[in-house]
Structures are given as C-alpha cells and as structure tokens.
Amino acid sequence: MANEEFDYKNIQVSVKLNKNVENIKKILDKFPDLIMREIKIANNPKHGAVFFYINKMVNINIMEEVVIKKLISRNEYSPYDISNPEYFKYILGINDKDILSSMDKIINKILDGKVVLFIDEIDKAIVIDLKNIPSRNIEEPVVETVIRGPREGFTENISTDIVLIREKIKSPNLKIEQFILGRETKTDVAIMYLSNIVNIKIVNELKERINQIDVDALFVTNTIKEYIEDDPITKFPTIFSTERPDVIVAKLLGGRIAIFANGTPVVLTVPAIFTEFLISTEDFYVSYIYATFNRYIRYLGFAFSILLPGLFVAIITFHQEVIPTSLLISLIKARSAVPYSSLFESFLMLTVYELVREAGVRMPRAVGQAISTVGALILGQAAVQAGLASTAMVIVIATTSIAAFTIPSTNMYTATILPRFIFLFLGGSLGLLGLITGVIIFLLKLISIRSFGVPYMEPLAPFVKSEFGDLIMRRPIWSKTKRSSIITGKKSKKRKSFNPIEKKFKEKNRE
C-alpha cells in the first residue's frame, strides 16, 4: 500500500507487536534505510520487542553497549514487572514524555533520528534519544568577521546554538519556547528571551504570528522572517539577523527576542530599529572614541551609498552654477567623448558595478573577491579609455560602492540598492528639487515603519532625548547604568552608577 494512501494520523499503538510492526512498514514502505531489529526482553521468549530507527542517524555503539544490554538482561532490583511500561522507564532512565501512543508522533520521532521501541503486550512505544547526525563544527562566521572579539558562530544544529547562548547567560530568566513548523519538514523552531527584561506583549504577538505559519517546508529563518514581519513590502529590514552568539546575547540583554530554526546558522531578533543595522559588533571591543568615529563614518556611508550618484547627476545636469569654474571645465572636457547623458552614464556604470559585485559573490570564495576587485578596476579604466564613461563618473560610482560596504548589515546593504537607482532617476530628471522631494518621501516612509509595534526610527522619530546619546555615539560602558527603554518600554537598572573620572577626582581631593 502506498504511503500517501495509508492514513495513520489517528492510529494508536496496539498491544500486539506484529500489528505495530505492520503499521510502521506500511507508513515507511519505501525507506531502504529504515532498520528493524528484534530482541527478547530479559532473554524471555514471551516478551518480544522491536527497535525501529533510520540508519546512520543514531549512535549504534551506545545502542549496543548500553540500551540493548540493559534490555536483554533481567533487572532484579526493579520494583516493576516487565509487562509494565514503568519497568522500562526505570532501567532506561526515560521520562513520561518519551512514552507515546500516537503513531503520528512516533513516525515523527523516527524521522527525527530517534530510536523507537515497541514491546509485545504493551500499547505504548518508548522513544530513546540516540540521535547522532553529523554536523558542522563551531567556526567563525564568514560574513561577520571581527578583528577583536569572539571567533565562534552558530551552526545548523539548533541544540548546539541554544547551548552557545546558555553558556553565556546563566540565568533562570532565560526562557525558551519551542515550535514545529512545516507540514513535511517538521522543522524545530525556538524563541528565546529574558523574562525579566522583555516586553511580554511583544512575546505574545510573536508567538501568535509564528503559530499562524502554515507551510509545507521550512529550511531557513528567512521563511519565518517573511511571514512575521510587519510590512513585507518594505525594502528595509525590520528583523535583525546574525550568525554570532555574542550579538544575540547583547540583543537578549537589550530586551529583544531571538528566533532559532534547525538547519540554519542564521538567528533572527525582534523588534529591530534602523540604527542597530549600522552598529558593528566590533564597536564594543574597541575604544568608545574610535567606535563613535566609525559610527559617524557608517552614517555618512549610508547617505553616500543612496544619494551620491543622484546628487552628482543632478548638479552636473541642472545646477552647473554651483560647481567652481575650473572644476566645471575639467568635467566638461572629461565628458566630451561620452556619447550619452550623465543620467544614462551613471545608470550604466551602476548596473555594471552590480553585475561585477554579484559575480564576485557567486564565484568560489578563493577567487571571488579578487575577480570583483580586479574586474571593476579593469572595466572602469577600459570604459574611460573607450569614451563610454568619464573619469569623474567612475570616481563617483567607486565612492558609492565603497560607502555602501561600510554598512555592517548585509540586509541593510541590500536595501540601499533600489533607493540608489530611484534617487538617481529623480536627480537626473528633476534636479535637486526632485532629489529633495525624494529624500522627504524616503524619510516619511522610514518614520512610518514599525517592527512589532516599535517605531523603526526611534529615538529620532519619535524623538527620545534620553536615548539620543546612544544614537550619535558609543558611550563608555561605565556611563550606561540603565537599559534602553525603546524596545522594552521600561527603564531598568543594569548596575550601580560608576564614574572612574569622578572617583579619581575624589581620591586626589582626599590626598
């Protein structure tokens, strides 16, 4: 009988061992890697039992040396009879949750890499966790590298990822809630938060959105992201993602909620605000003065990445009077051999740049970066020599691309591509008036975005004076005595106030 024709959802475990074996074989009828192994409990021919598991998904050594040895030997100290499920709980050290009667749940356990034991005359199945699936070792994330700081990153194993966080936050307030998503994939998903810091309303809203997800398959957290984000149409990320455990720890301590999914090293956090996408992990591993300077550079880089081509084309096309005469003459000479408008020239150069960038990403890692860098240099020089682009335009596009790479978040970097072209066409067709109008609409759009009810542009809009300091600079750690209220909606103390400068001054006065 074909698997899809056999409805097993409502089938319960039978007291007859042969019936249970028959049902398993019907449900998993085309599973060549399904292993069935028969034993006799306590070497008694009257007490037959059968193991079911998927080959190469369980630890055979532990199964042979521990589980089977315990089962085939009679335990004289057990207060229970062999025909009682409590006997197996006693000798195997399992819990009530490992004893199942639903065939649907049993099948899920087998497919998840667990060992299931059926025993004659017992209408329950025993689940034994001997899962041993090969997984990648803990390594440094390729995208989020740092000069200083931890070198560990998440893996594709959700259990390992949760342990990495548990190791760093040893608190009973660290809560984990689990879900299973995907009708076919049955993917393990978990949310994590600190109950004494998080806004519980956001937790409830997140759980409600996750419970509404109904898909056949779920392999990556991006699937969850697209289902739960407030505005799926917006190009700007409203959910933060990272592969670094230290980043997740910082987010949890800031009142965020982390979302894990088995099979992907990318972990999501909600809610998210605009400024956190421009903050680098390394900001907290270097001097606060240097980190503040870098933060300003990123803000400037973000503005340049979306506005510079449009601003240059607008000025050179409609507002030549603002350019110094000597510079204007140089620009005109440089463009004299270019057969098309500045707008088309800029559009062409930006498109070629995106092609080179995408090719560099798709190439093997060892040569991809070199190909994209050398390719851009060669194409730029060849375009100038052939009269297809001016020197000034090559400089503008190169500056734009460098500015875009100052953005730490790949999601935010991707979000700048479309606005860059929009502002280019506005500046090239309507001049500075069109560019300014576009910037106003752009800012209004950003202000209107919400992430789980939290304003995306807070503390800028709405303006929160007490939180504004963290936006414009990375304050010294000793000066931050309270947690931000942007996410949690409440102020809470992190520690007692301490000012080393004030302390040093007082010590001098005592002397």
Describe the 3D structure.
There is one protein chain. It contains 18 helices and twelve strands. The chain is α+β, with helices and mostly antiparallel strands. It has three domains: 17-128, no CATH class; 158-272, no CATH class; 288-454, no CATH class. The longest helix has 32 residues, at 417-448.
Question: What is the percentage of strand-forming residues?
Answer: 5-15%
Oligomer: single chain
* Spatial extent as radius of gyration: 31 Å
Overall spatial form:
elongated
Number of strands: 12
Spatial gap, N to C terminus: 92 Å
- Report the mean per-residue pLDDT as an integer: 86
SS summary, helix count: 18
- Tally of individual domains: 3
Structure class: alpha+beta
SSE order in H/E notation?
A: HEEHHEHEEHEEHHEHEEHHHHHHHEEHHH
Major β-sheet strand ordering: 1-2-4-5-3
Q: pLDDT under 50 segments (min length 5)? A: none
InterPro entries: Spore_Ger, UPF0353/GerABKA_families
Organism: Clostridium pasteurianum BC1
Keywords: Membrane, Transmembrane, Transmembrane helix
Protein name: Spore germination protein, GerA family
Main traits of this protein?
single chain, 47% helix, 5-stranded antiparallel β-sheet, transmembrane, Spore_Ger, UPF0353/GerABKA_families, 3 domains, 511 residues, alpha+beta, membrane, Spore germination protein, GerA family
